C-alpha cells in the first residue's frame, strides 16, 4: 500500500484530542445535571441523554473521522504499467537578461516582453523537449532540456537581470552554451530561439552561428527593441550614463540578428509591442520540423482505493445521525418505552 497524500495521515494524531474533548463534554453535562437534581431525576431532565448511547456515538464519530483521514490520504494498491513515447524536437530558448533589456520602448520593458513571448512559445509546444538559457556577459542554463513544461515555466518566472552576474551582452556565449547543451542531449532536430535586443558587445554572435550551423542547429532570432534607441534605467530612478555623463542609449541591432538566422537557416523577426502574431512563422517552422523520438517512458498508474474508507465512514455518520433522531429510553416511573 502507498499513499498519494501521506501528509493527511498527520491528522490521525488529532483524534486523541477529539476523543478527549468528547469525554470532557460528557463529563461536564453529567456534572451540570448533578448540580440541579438527583441522579434518579436525570432521565426526566435530559430524556435524550444516555451515557451508553453517547459513548457509542463517540466511537462512531471517531471511527468515521479516522476513515475519512485515511481516505483523504488516498491509499493506493495494485497498479498497471503504461508506456508513453514522446516525439518532438530539442528546443532551447536563450533570453537576454542584460541591463539593456530594462529599456522601456516596450511596456513595461523589453525583458517583460521577452518573457511574455517565451510564455506563449511554451504554451504551443507539444511533445518537444525545451530548455531555457539566460545570458548577459555570460550564459547560464536556467532549465535543462525537459518535457516537463511546468519546470520550464518555473524557470521562466525567475528570469530577471540578476540571473547572470557578468554584465554585458554576449550572444556568442548563449549560442555556445546551446551547442554544449544540445551535444549532451539525444540526437534529433535542434532549434535555438534567441530573444535579445541584438547588441553583441563581444562581437562573436556571427562567428558562433557558423559553429552552430556545423552542429546542424537552426537559430531563430526575435529582436526585442526599437531602432530609435532608449535610455537604460538604473537604480535610483535615473538612467545609465557613460564616463562623460551622457545618457547611454540602447538600440535594436536587427542586422546582426538577421545574419545569425540566415547563416543557420532560421528566421529573424522583430517583436511587436503586444500580441503574438510575430511568433507564427517560427512556431509554424517548429511544427513542420520532422519529429524524432525523444523519450520512451514506462510508468506505473496505481489504483485508487480511497472509496474503501470513505464509504464506510459515510455509513458510520449516517448511523450516528439516526441514533441522534431515535433514542429509546425506559422511564422507570411509567415502566414504558418512549421514542424521541
Automatic annotation (TrEMBL):
<protein>
    <submittedName>
        <fullName>BatB</fullName>
    </submittedName>
</protein>
<keyword id="KW-1003">Cell membrane</keyword>
<keyword id="KW-1133">Transmembrane helix</keyword>
<keyword id="KW-0812">Transmembrane</keyword>
<keyword id="KW-0472">Membrane</keyword>
<dbReference type="InterPro" id="IPR050768">
    <property type="entry name" value="UPF0353/GerABKA_families"/>
</dbReference>
<dbReference type="InterPro" id="IPR036465">
    <property type="entry name" value="vWFA_dom_sf"/>
</dbReference>
<dbReference type="InterPro" id="IPR002035">
    <property type="entry name" value="VWF_A"/>
</dbReference>
<feature type="transmembrane region" description="Helical">
    <location>
        <begin position="6"/>
        <end position="27"/>
    </location>
</feature>
<feature type="domain" description="VWFA">
    <location>
        <begin position="90"/>
        <end position="264"/>
    </location>
</feature>
<dbReference type="Pfam" id="PF13519">
    <property type="entry name" value="VWA_2"/>
</dbReference>
Amino acid at each position: 500500500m502507498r499513499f498519494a497524500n501521506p501528509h493527511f495521515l498527520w491528522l490521525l494524531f488529532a483524534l486523541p484530542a477529539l476523543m478527549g474533548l468528547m469525554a470532557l463534554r460528557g463529563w461536564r453535562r453529567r456534572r451540570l445535571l448533578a448540580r440541579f437534581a438527583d441522579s434518579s431525576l436525570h432521565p426526566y431532565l435530559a430524556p435524550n441523554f444516555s451515557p451508553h448511547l453517547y459513548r457509542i456515538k463517540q466511537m462512531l464519530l471517531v471511527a468515521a473521522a479516522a476513515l475519512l483521514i485515511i481516505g483523504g490520504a488516498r491509499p493506493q494498491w495494485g497498479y498497471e504499467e503504461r508506456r508513453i513515447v514522446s516525439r518532438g524536437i530539442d528546443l532551447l530558448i536563450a533570453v537576454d537578461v542584460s541591463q539593456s533589456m530594462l529599456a522601456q520602448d516596450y511596456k513595461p520593458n523589453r525583458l517583460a516582453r521577452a518573457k511574455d513571448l517565451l510564455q506563449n512559445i511554451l504554451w504551443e509546444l507539444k511533445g518537444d523537449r525545451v530548455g531555457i538559457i539566460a545570458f548577459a556577459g555570460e550564459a547560464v542554463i536556467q532549465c535543462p532540456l525537459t518535457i516537463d513544461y511546468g519546470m520550464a515555466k518555473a524557470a521562466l518566472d525567475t528570469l530577471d537581470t540578476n540571473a547572470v552576474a557578468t554584465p554585458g551582452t554576449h550572444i556568442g556565449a548563449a549560442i555556445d552554451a546551446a551547442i554544449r547543451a544540445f551535444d549532451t542531449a539525444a540526437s534529433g532536430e535542434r532549434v535555438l530561439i534567441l530573444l535579445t535586443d541584438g547588441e553583441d558587445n563581444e562581437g562573436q554572435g556571427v562567428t558562433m552561428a557558423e559553429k552552430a550551423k556545423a552542429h546542424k542547429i537552426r537559430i531563430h532570432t526575435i529582436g526585442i527593441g526599437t531602432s530609435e534607441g532608449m535610455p537604460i534605467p538604473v537604480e535610483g530612478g535615473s538612467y545609465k550614463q557613460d564616463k562623460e555623463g551622457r545618457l547611454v542609449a540602447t538600440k535594436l541591432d536587427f542586422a546582426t540578428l538577421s545574419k545569425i538566422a540566415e547563416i543557420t537557416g532560421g528566421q529573424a523577426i522583430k517583436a511587436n509591442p503586444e500580441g503574438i502574431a510575430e511568433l507564427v512563422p517560427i512556431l509554424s517552422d517548429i511544427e513542420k520540423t520532422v519529429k524524432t523520438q525523444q523519450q520512451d517512458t514506462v510508468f506505473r498508474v496505481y489504483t485508487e482505493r480511497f472509496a474503501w474508507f470513505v464509504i464506510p465512514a459515510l455509513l458510520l455518520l449516517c448511523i450516528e445521525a439516526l441514533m441522534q433522531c431515535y433514542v429509546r429510553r425506559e422511564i422507570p416511573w411509567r415502566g414504558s418505552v418512549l421514542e424521541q
